[in-house]
């Protein structure tokens, strides 16, 4: 409780208040800009958090993460083009509402449902993360290895064309983490004589390349696309009738979104899609879905914001990212010299509670900003790509260059921009690669430590029940969908 | 993919060899080989049972021009320095992507550069490459 109060007290620091406000504002703006997602922004702004304290840095990135999901709904409703992938399901009913002149009503419901979902998940985070950390406190290297493998296996479901492609991308991420000096022997691996590779591949240029520069090339292929914006009247708080109508959808989706967010590698987009389907299933007006049902806006918006807090649970308590964006936030913490995991709850509880409090604040802030300034944010979505994307490139270059002041990092960012573009063309999602890159060192380190404990015998894992359970879950998640499909295909 | 994995696997034979006692039974090459084995297995699975995905459309020429402009930017940094290259890039890519109002391109680019200069060069004291003619 003391740590919680101390964490809350940190929010009284004007600098932290300012970064949370700036993060929320930036999150809404970039979330609303088609093509620039929360992941892109956190990757782009990651280098600039280096000069901040760890609390400020994670509060800033956390606020962007919270607000970007809501920002995405503005474009989804007004332009039928989700600013953030997590708002895709919102467009199904949000845009038809806007077309029939109810954009303000849809945006009002989106802001309220997002804030309720977000606040619910942060409350769960406040209680669940310490519990999970306490459970994990007795984990040794074998359990951590099994947990990291479980986290990696979950990338199979994290988007892209197929589970196998996601796993391959994740494995390539792990391979990237092997570049540089081996942690135990000091032997150089895949450095090709390049001095800056000795310490391994830096996260920042890779993340900037995979998210920002890949998207720049993607945008170059869509220049002919034009969007028409629906008229926006005043954005209002939802009426009592709307609240009553959507209460079930918001509650169900908040719980669903938080749960899906907690599962490693499953993020807000999956949560919103599943919530949409479930909201429709439990609705009394199923036939209205797709034609402008307000529940179809409330459900996905509550779920995608609930997934944010959920995804932070394994990220902070175990050091296993819950989504692509939390993998970037995790990288940000590592860059700051903070390794998330159960020990954080005993060593730096104030930092964690400050992060939780700042996320709560961010949820309240975007509710106020969303209701008050939706018209302004809607205007921002109309910035022509001819000005927006060259600026994104310039920021990417300075972002990749600034931390080490080395042009090699800019080359790495550009190279990963090309790699990410071709990955997408061939149906590979860049998010699993990032998760693999972030978890790679942990996987190798804990495997080596485990084998030393077991006297180089892999059979040692059989005597560790928690590790065995996690391996079992990994097998279940990897093979379950294939086996189910086979069973269904049987006559 | 299998070819890339095989190439990376072959490279592990070039890693420095240490005495077995120092390595502790799990050398620097062991983990990459394990991961590459997993990649090869998955790639084989993908080859045997490819997913039902639509073939991706042809890459529009504009993507190549844009990719070329990124490389041109890197070359320009050597000549005119990072700030100069950024200014040229802001105008160049805007023009390439169809913006023809020169005054607007110049104004926006100057505004972006002024922000970059104020925040990064003055604020964070980032020292950027100055180019050949400095």
Q: Which SSEs are present, and which pair or pack?
A:
The complex is a heterodimer of chains A (491) and B (134).
Chain A: H1 2-10, H2 14-32, H3 38-45, H4 54-79, H5 88-99, H6 103-136, H7 141-153, H8 163-177, E1 180-181, E2 188-189, H9 203-220, H10 240-262, H11 268-282, H12 295-318, H13 324-335, H14 343-347, H15 349-380, H16 385-401, H17 407-425, H18 430-453, H19 465-489
Antiparallel strand pairs in A: 1-2
Chain B: H1 2-11, H2 20-23, H3 30-48, H4 61-96, H5 102-123
Helix pairs in contact in B: 1-3, 4-5
Give the H and E element order of chain A: HHHHHHHHEEHHHHHHHHHHH
Described by the principal axes of the CA atoms, the overall outline of chain B is flat
Span between N and C termini of chain A?
58 Å
The overall pLDDT average of chain B reads 88
Structural class of chain A: mainly alpha
Walk me through what this model shows.
The complex is a heterodimer of chains A (491) and B (134). Chain A is mostly helical and 491 residues long. Helices cover 71% and strands 1% of the residues of chain A. Chain A has a two-stranded antiparallel ribbon with strand order 1-2. In chain A, helix 4 packs antiparallel against helix 13 (324-335). Chain A is globular. The mean pLDDT of chain A is 84. Chain B has 2 domains: 2-48, no CATH class; 61-123. Helix content of chain B is 68%, strand content 0%. The mean pLDDT of chain B is 88. With 134 residues, chain B is mainly alpha-helical. The interface between A and B is large, with 57 and 61 residues.
Which keywords apply here?
heterodimer, A: 491 residues, mainly alpha, two-stranded antiparallel sheet, 19 helices, 1% strand, globular, B: mainly alpha, 2 domains, 5 helices, 68% helix
Please provide a brief summary of the model.
The complex is a heterodimer of chains A (491) and B (134). Chain A is an all-alpha fold and 491 residues long.
């Amino acid at each position: 409780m003391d740590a919680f109060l101390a964490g809350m007290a940190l929010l009284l620091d004007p600098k932290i208040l300012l970064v949370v406000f700036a993060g929320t504002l930036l999150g809404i703006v970039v979330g609303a800009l088609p093509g620039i997602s929360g992941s892109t922004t956190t990757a782009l702004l990651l280098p600039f958090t280096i000069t901040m304290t760890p609390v400020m840095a994670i509060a800033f990135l956390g606020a962007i993460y919270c607000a970007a999901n809501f920002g995405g709904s503005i474009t989804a409703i007004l332009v039928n083009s989700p600013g953030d992938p997590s708002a895709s399901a919102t467009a199904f009913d949000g845009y038809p509402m806007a077309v029939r002149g109810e954009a303000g009503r849809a945006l009002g419901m989106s802001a309220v449902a997002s804030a309720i979902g977000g606040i619910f998940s942060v409350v769960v985070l406040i209680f669940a993360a310490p519990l999970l950390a306490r459970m994990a406190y007795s984990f040794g290297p074998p359990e951590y290895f099994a947990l990291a493998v479980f986290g990696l296996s979950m990338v199979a479901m994290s988007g892209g064309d197929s589970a196998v492609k996601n796993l391959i991308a994740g494995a390539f991420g792990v391979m990237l983490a092997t570049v540089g000096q081996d942690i135990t022997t000091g032997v150089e691996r895949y450095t090709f004589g390049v001095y800056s590779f000795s310490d391994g591949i830096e996260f920042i240029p890779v993340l900037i390349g995979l998210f920002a520069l890949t998207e720049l090339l993607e945008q170059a292929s869509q220049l002919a696309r034009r969007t028409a914006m629906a008229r926006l009247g005043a954005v209002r708080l939802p009426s009592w009738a709307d609240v009553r109508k959507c209460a079930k959808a918001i509650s169900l989706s908040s719980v669903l979104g938080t749960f899906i967010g907690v599962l490693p590698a499953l993020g807000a987009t999956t949560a919103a899609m599943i919530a949409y389907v479930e909201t429709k299933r439990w609705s009394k007006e199923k036939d209205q879905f797709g034609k402008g049902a307000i529940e179809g806006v409330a459900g996905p918006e509550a779920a995608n914001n609930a997934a944010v807090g959920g995804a932070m649970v394994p990220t902070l308590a175990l050091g296993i990212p819950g989504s692509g964006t939390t993998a970037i936030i995790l990288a940000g913490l590592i860059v700051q010299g903070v390794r998330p995991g159960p020990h954080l709850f005993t060593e730096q509880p104030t930092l964690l509670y400050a992060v939780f409090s700042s996320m709560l604040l961010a949820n309240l802030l975007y509710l106020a900003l969303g209701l008050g300034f939706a018209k302004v944010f809607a205007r921002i979505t109309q910035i022509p790509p001819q000005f927006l994307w060259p600026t994104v490139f310039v920021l990417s270059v300075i972002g990749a260059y600034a931390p080490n002041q080395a042009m090699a990092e800019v080359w790495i960012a550009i190279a990963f921009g090309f790699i990410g573009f071709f990955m997408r063309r061939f149906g590979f999602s860049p998010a699993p690669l990032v998760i693999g890159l972030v978890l790679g060192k942990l996987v190798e380190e804990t495997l080596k430590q485990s084998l030393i404990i077991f006297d180089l015998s892999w059979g040692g894992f059989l005597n560790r029940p928690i590790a065995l359970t996690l391996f079992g879950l990994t097998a279940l998640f990897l093979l379950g969908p294939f086996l189910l499909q086979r069973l269904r295909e049987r006559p | 993919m299998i070819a890339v994995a095989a190439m990376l696997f072959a490279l592990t034979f070039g890693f420095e060899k240490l005495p077995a006692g120092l390595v502790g039974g799990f050398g620097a090459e062991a983990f990459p080989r394990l991961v590459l084995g997993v990649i090869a297995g998955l790639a084989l699975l993908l080859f045997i049972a490819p997913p039902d995905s639509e073939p991706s459309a042809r890459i529009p020429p504009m993507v190549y021009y844009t990719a070329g402009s990124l490389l041109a930017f890197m070359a320009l940094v050597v000549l005119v320095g990072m700030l100069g290259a950024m200014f040229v890039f802001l105008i160049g890519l805007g023009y390439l992507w169809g913006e023809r109002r020169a005054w607007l391109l110049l104004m926006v680019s100057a505004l972006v550069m002024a922000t970059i200069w104020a925040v990064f060069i003055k604020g964070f004291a980032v020292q950027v490459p100055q180019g050949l003619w400095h």
